[in-house]
Known about the structure:
Elements: H1 14-31, E1 33-37, H2 38-57, H3 60-69, H4 73-86, E2 95-102, E3 109-115, H5 122-185
Antiparallel strand pairs: 1-3, 2-3
Amino acid sequence: MPTPTKGPRLGGGPAHERLMLANLAAALFEHKRITTTVTKAKRLKPYAERLVTFAKRGDLASRRRVLGLISDKGVVHELFTDIAGAVANRDGGYTRITKIGNRKGDNAPMAVIELVLEPVSPKQAVVAEATAAAAKAAPAAEEEVVETEAVETEAAETEEAPAAEAEAADAEVAETEEAPAAEDKK
């Protein structure tokens, strides 16, 4: 975890800050977006992104490490199954903070922090899909190439046989035509 910030820790001690961030992260993973103050959202962003990175690993050690921070097993399960699968192609930037104005009661600046679950970009998603389809079709294409080569060699052999027969027939016709001419000369 990064070095703790100096000064006040979100209105409490370090233990209270850890618990608050864990609860905010659990709410974020459960609801996919939450409304909170800008300060809490900025503090939550690296914390939540680190947990998503653990979820992308998907191994047992990562799951236990996240369970040590977030006590709700249902939220951790959702993080490891749904959210990690949705951001598998993303290399970072799993959350987005949008400022929405000030709170009515105490005029605190508010923000919405949400998970970014859409694909990285539509163009890259199409390219990745095409690459996967090409890789899947490659073994089938190789089999088709082998079958096509076999068919072509058979066709070439069958084409050579009639050509040879035609040449032989032409030779016989030429011999028969020459034979009467030879008889006439005798």
